[in-house]
Structure formats: C-alpha cells, structure tokens
Amino acid sequence: MAQKPSIPKGTRDFGPSEMVKRNFIFDTVKSVFKLYGYQPIETPAMENLSTLMGKYGEEGDKLLFKILNSGDFLKGADESQLQQKNSQKITSYISEKGLRYDLTVPFARFVVQHREEVQFPFKRYQVQPVWRADNPQKGRYREFYQCDVDVIGSDSLLNEVELIQIVDEVYRRLNIRVAVKMNNRKILSGIAEVIGQPDKIVDITVAIDKLDKNGIEKVNLELEEKGLPKSAINQLQPILHLSGTNFEKLQQIKSVLATSEIGLKGVSEMETVFNWLAPLQLQTPVELDLTLARGLNYYTGAIFEVKALDMQIGSITGGGRYDDLTGIFGLPGVSGVGISFGADRIYDVMEHLDLFPKNAATTTQLLFINFGEKEQSWCLPVIQQLRRTGISTEMYPEPAKMKKQMSYANDRKIPYVALVGEEEMSSGLITLKNMELGTQEKVGVAELMELISNAIIRK
RNA sequence: GUGGAUGUAGCUCAGUAGGUUAGAGUAGCGGAUUGUGGUUCCGUUGGUCGUGGGUUCGAGCCCCAUCUUCCACCCCA
After folding, report:
1. Low-confidence ranges of chain A (pLDDT < 50)
2. Chain A 241-280 residues whose Cβ is under 7 Å from strand B
3. Given 3-state DSSP classes, what are the helix, strand and coil percentages for chain A, each rounded to the nearest 5?
4. Predicted ipTM?
5. How far is the CA of A208 from the C1' of B72 (A)?
6. For residue A137, which nucleotide's C1' is closest to its Cα?
7. In this predicted structure, what is the pLDDT of residue A11?
8. Which CATH number fits domain A366-458: 3.30.200.20, 3.30.565.10, 3.40.50.800, 3.30.428.10?
9. Where does chain A hold its CATH 3.30.930.10 domain(s)?
10. How is domain A19-40+114-123+133-352 classified at the CATH fold level?
11. What does the pLDDT look like over A258-294, one tens digit per residue?
C-alpha cells in the first residue's frame, strides 16, 4: 500500500457491528413514526442552491456544501470578479447545486412541487443523511442522519402534542432518559416588541439562548454589544429569571406581554399544548424554557429541543412550527410542524451509556461446519430448508480446520453450530452445539428447526 | 471561519537531553490439541513513527507547511 486511503473530514465508515446498532435506532424511530400514521418519502442528496440558500440564516449559508457545475464551470464566470478573487460572487456562477442541509426545507420544496398529489394534512417521515460544512467535534459530523417527522397543512396544536408523544415513545423504546424543552417564537417576538426592539429579535434570541451556558452577565453584555439600550435590557431581566411550573411561568409572562398581541397568542398556544399534555402521563418531562431560541430562521411558533439527561452532548432532537416555509416556494398559507431525531448523536448517547441490546450484534443463528465435499452436498438441502423457515443459517465455505471454523462461529457470536460428518450422515442425526453453554446433542432436522426457532423467540 | 492540543504495529499505548537494528500489551497467524471455539502455554508475522519539506554528522523527538482527530468560539442534530 503506497498511501493509505482516507475519507473526507467529518465523515465516517460504518462497520457491521455499528450498522446493526444504527439500524436498531432507525428501525425504532421508523416503527414509532408509522404507529402514528406518518408516511415515508425520500428526496435527492442535492438540491438547487436556490432552494437551499437563505433558509437557515447567514451562518447556515456558509455551512452549505456547494457542488461545482459539471463541464467547463468557469465559462460563465465574470472576468473581473475572477480577477478580484471575489469568492462569493463567483460561487453563483460556478455552482448551482448543493448538498441538503436538513430535511425540512427539501420537504417544503417537495410539498410545493407535488401539491396536486399530496393530501393535506400530509404526515411524512424521512430518514436520510444531511451535510454541513461545520468544523467536526465529538457529536458533530459533516455527514449525519436525521430522522424527520413533520405534518404539514394543519394549524392544529394537536400536532405539537403528537410530536411530543412521539418523542416520549421513541426515547422510551430506546431507553434513554430525556427532557423536552419547549418555547414559542411568538413569545420571543412579543418580548422583542414589548421592549421596543422588534427588529432585534434575532440578536435577542441568539443571546438569551446562551443563558444556560454563559450566565446572565455575559448575555447582558452581548445584548449591549448588539446595540440594545440599557432600558430594554433591564426590561428583559424579569423574563430571564422566571421560575415555577410551566403554568406559573406562563402566568408571569402573560402580564409582561399584556400589550403584545402576538406575545399573548404565543402564551395561549403554550397553555393549550400543556393542557392537552397534562392527562397523557408521559414519562418525559416537558419544560417551558424561554431561553430556548434555536437558530433556524423559518420557525414561527412552537420550538422544541430534546436533551439527554445522562450524557452531556448537544441536543439530540429538535424542531418546531414553520408557518410559511412553503410560501417561499410559491405555496402560501400552509403551516407545518416537525421534529428531527439526530441518529448519530443518539448513537453516541446509547454507546456511552451502554444501552444497545446485547444480542443485537448477532445475525447468523446457525453455522454448519464444513467437513468436505460429501458433507457439503448432504448439508446444502438441509440448510435451504432451515432458511425457508426463517432461520438465518450459513455454512463455512471451505473445509478448513475445525479450530478455524469454530473460532469463526465464536467471533461472529453465532449461538449454534451444526456438525455433520460421516457418523451424522449415516445416522441422519445432526450434532448441534450450543456455543454459549458448550453443550451438544444429536437431533433430527425437524427437531433442529424447532430448537432454534424456540431459542430465537426466547430472545 | 478563528484559536489551542493531538497523530508511533489492525487496536491501546511506551520511547529517557536529538545517537546503533523503534518496544510492550492485545489482536492476527502457526503449533501444543488433524471432529470442537471462548481459558492456558510456546513460537511468529506485522511499523518509510499522519504526509511533505527543512535544520543536523545523525530526527519518532527540533523548525515550517499540510491533513486527521479532539477541545474552545460560532452554530447546531
């Protein structure tokens, strides 16, 4: 090997044992999505840059992977821009496609493009990779999978409640302890309005989002740097110090937002959601957190974030309501709400807490030891029969030494091994070894099938 | 995009002030045991020390560049 091959920064290969675990996560979320009546779709890895740009904020545009045009991509480029090395301007000439940054924007594009085919409310799920040109760290990759569930074409807050139920059910099945944090963009808008800084909404939300991490003083400092007057910052203080139950917090914020129509709307939305949530007895705590902002531009109502309680890692699920994402693509008045499960971070959490089922690594149930040509021919029809009854079976492909074949079974964690040599062929009874216990017995084919089927069911 | 740390066998890591042929554990392979794995014992393969330059009589170690991973900022799943 002259030079070791490698893969791009922030991307990963997944070996068999990792894939078994990853599939466990994918299968779990998908089965919950289906349980709630969501339908699958897929969209291309790349989208036109025009559908991607401007949807994720300034930062998001920078993190988009852009694809160089095919052929002579410099042909259309402006000569003077090239001379000036104006990368930003040149980009629009040499790249018209990009890798998707999330699944929500492509979904909105999908809905607009297929508006005649989809029936509203449209409930869909989508499990696909997304790409971000971010600097990688632990729990942060440049290619990662999102598992999105969205319902579009319905204003009902029932959808918000349903998404929280889904979160509860998914993490109950995955056995991860989590907490849901909720807020509402309308409340945040109301706050900006009340303190007389409606145009500073983005700066305000970005700053107070860091309250948890940086503390009140740094937040205030950042607000000041962004040009907020002292009076406005002072007005903000009581909001940052809310305490009590969700309803108590809402009660307090209501009086602060008394003059803001949009703010009060947000409060009443949250009240409705919490009221409907109350009798459902979810095991996941749902907490109103006014410092939760979320950077994505398109959210307009409820916003969610899910944090793992037993491991420090960024949020493992996030989402919210977007009232007019489809409007950008020419279909106004269609509101949607959705959340996204971050499969890779969920994986990291489960790995760290050792939560994967331990038999998940097993695929083959039964290995036939290969003794030679005669024995192979004898075993082949038996193996076919076993596979037809659903038992995952394989035969070692060559008559290697016993030790090697047994080691193979052991390393692959195959629970049963069948030995068929001279003796077994003449008696018709197969020697079946239980690899875990080290015991073995002679059984007929029918008995063999029953034994293993039962063993699988017991697991 | 900015700043900091890291990189030695497949994996986990030693490597003394720059000085012969770079070590260990583990995994792999072979044997003890040719119809019995996981335990034990013996033997053995494997490294252009991330990559490319430079300083030096001499570089795993010093300098520069570059890449990876990790950490912080930013932002996020």
Report:
1. 1-2
2. none
3. 45, 20, 35
4. 0.86
5. 20
6. B70
7. 92
8. 3.40.50.800
9. 19-40+114-123+133-352
10. BirA Bifunctional Protein; domain 2 (3.30.930)
11. 999 999 999 999 999 999 999 999 999 999 988 887 7
User: pLDDT tens, A147-157?
Assistant: 999 999 999 99
**Nearest residue to B73 via alpha carbon and C1':** A135
- For CATH 3.40.50.800, the residue range(s) in chain A are 366-458
pLDDT of residue A1: 33
Show the tokens assigned to A364.
Answer: 């083959």
pTM of the model: 0.90
A92 touches strand B (CB under 7 A): no
pLDDT of residue A400: 87
Q: Which of residues 42-71 of A touch strand B (CB under 7 A)?
A: 57, 59-60, 63
Protein-to-nucleotide distance from the CA of A343 to the C1' of B71, whole angstroms: 23
Residues A307 and A321: beta-carbon distance below 8 Å: no
Task: Using a 7 Å cut-off to protein CB atoms, list the covered nucleotides of chain B.
Answer: 1-3, 28-31, 33-38, 48, 50-51, 67-77
* Spatial CA neighbour of A176 closest among A345, A36, A372, A363: A345
- The size of chain A, in residues, is 459
CB contact at 8 A, A108 and A329: yes
Closest nucleotide (C1' vs CA) to A6 is: B68
